[in-house]
Amino acid sequence: MSASAMSAAAMSQVSFDFEFDDGGEPTYSVGELAEAINGTLRRRFSDGLWVRGEIQGWSVRGPHAYFRLVEETDQGKAVVNVQFFAPAQARLKPLLMKNRLRLADGLKVRIFGHLDYFAPSGQLGVKMSGIDPRFTLGEMALQRDDVVRRLVASGLYDRNRSRLVPPAPLRVGVVASRASAAWADFLHEIERSALAFQVRLVDVRVQGEWAVTEVTAAIRTLSRHRDLDVVVVIRGGGSRTELATFDHEAIATAIATSPIPVFTGLGHEIDRAVADEVAHSALKTPTACAAALVEHVQLFQQRTELAWAALERRADRALASASADVADLAHGIRHRVVAAVDRADERLAQRGHRVGVGATRVVDRAEVRLAAAAAALRRTPQRLDPEVRHLDAVAQRVRLLDPVHTMARGWSITRTADGRTVRDASQLQAGDQLVTTFANGTARSRVEETHS
């Protein structure tokens, strides 16, 4: 509606009895104001306009998407609402896919559209119909470069690369989404190797609002485990904006400060995240990451087998040399033993001869002494006769003194019950038991009385 028409419509309204001077200015209804605003916007921005800012509050309702473009200014936060309707999404999808961009919260964009005042909500917004991918990619590159510069300045950029990977990195901590193809591919490659890997998974979200927090916490948690050889951070392929999660300074710092070597396999063949920049080893895909670990262990096996083979060859050579030395030594010992035995035989023969000669002399001397002793013995009985007669007389006297012979002549021996010989009546008391021994027997008696 034109200004003259609106003026005529205002003048045709019902008149009231009170006086009110509007100065000739028209009065709009809310709907008329909405139409006037939109008319002015279409005339002022008939060809549309470009606007830049950061996406916040991204939401999808049915086929359409809605978000706010936000900018921090000196006066505070400036906000404009954006409607991204399904037809515009369909037109821009090939462009976004070509540049591997996915619109989400936190992404800085430069979009094209037309201003529109939406009367039911009373809000001014932009109907999005175009986007400048170069602006977004440039902003992402600038942010990424800023993070890298800060890491270099703080001395963290190369720190994790200085960590030593153990010769056989079999104990592996993994940061990944358990439900992702990345984890399945990594685990399949590990299991296919048939090596004794021990894998510990921390399940995280690798994109979205909480991805940075969860990935950072998982890396720090695994890095505190001294029983791990390496930490692996993996995810599948995706857009550049999804990869931007791994450009975040918090994740990069957690990797750089880890005391354990960190391997990354973020699934991007072309792009390289800041996490890749600071990691010990950056592989293109989760499968390549697992293959690198398998190769480390297999190389260790090969080196071990080669070292063992070298030790075996050296041991064989040492054994052969020792065997030759032993053979030479045995040969020398045999000659020396034979010579020693010959010398011993010769000495033995000499000593045997000397012993034989000496024994003959000894026997001769013994025979002479034996003959002399025999002659002396033959003279001994003549000297012994007086002694023998004397011994016979002594023996006769001894026999005469034997109690047996005395008792045979009528004598007896009286003893007390405990075997003491009674020599005097004073030794006895009435009632004592006595044992009397005769030449041909014994008798027991009791003392009735004694007399001195």
Q: Any idea how many domains?
A: 4
- Write out the CATH superfamily name of the largest domain: Hypothetical protein af1403, domain 2
- DSSP summary: helix tally: 11
- The dominant shape is elongated
- Level of helix content? 40-55%
What does this protein look like?
The strands form 3 sheets. A 5-stranded mixed barrel has the order 1-2-3-5-4. A 5-stranded parallel β-sheet has the order 7-6-8-9-10, with helices on both faces. Strands 11-12-13 form a 3-stranded antiparallel β-sheet, with no helix packed on it. It is elongated and about 195 Å long. A hairpin with a 2-residue loop joins β12 (433-438) and β13 (441-446). α5 (181-192) crosses α10 and α6 (211-223) runs parallel beside α8. Mean pLDDT is 84; it is low at 1-18. The chain is 49% helix and 20% strand. It contains 11 helices and 13 strands. The chain is α/β, with parallel strands linked by helices and 452 residues long.
Quick take:
The protein is of the alpha/beta class and 452 residues long. 49% of the residues lie in helices and 20% in strands.
Topology summary:
Blueprint: H1 3-11, H2 30-44, E1 49-61, E2 64-73, E3 76-84, H3 86-98, E4 108-118, E5 123-131, H4 133-153, E6 171-176, H5 181-192, E7 198-203, H6 211-223, E8 230-234, H7 240-243, H8 249-256, E9 262-265, H9 274-278, E10 281-283, H10 286-401, H11 403-408, E11 413-416, E12 433-438, E13 441-446
Helix pairs in contact: 5-10, 6-8
Can you tag this structure with a few keywords?
alpha/beta, five-stranded parallel β-sheet, 452 residues, Rossmann fold, 4 domains, single chain, 13 strands, 20% strand, disordered N terminus, OB fold (Dihydrolipoamide Acetyltransferase, E2P)
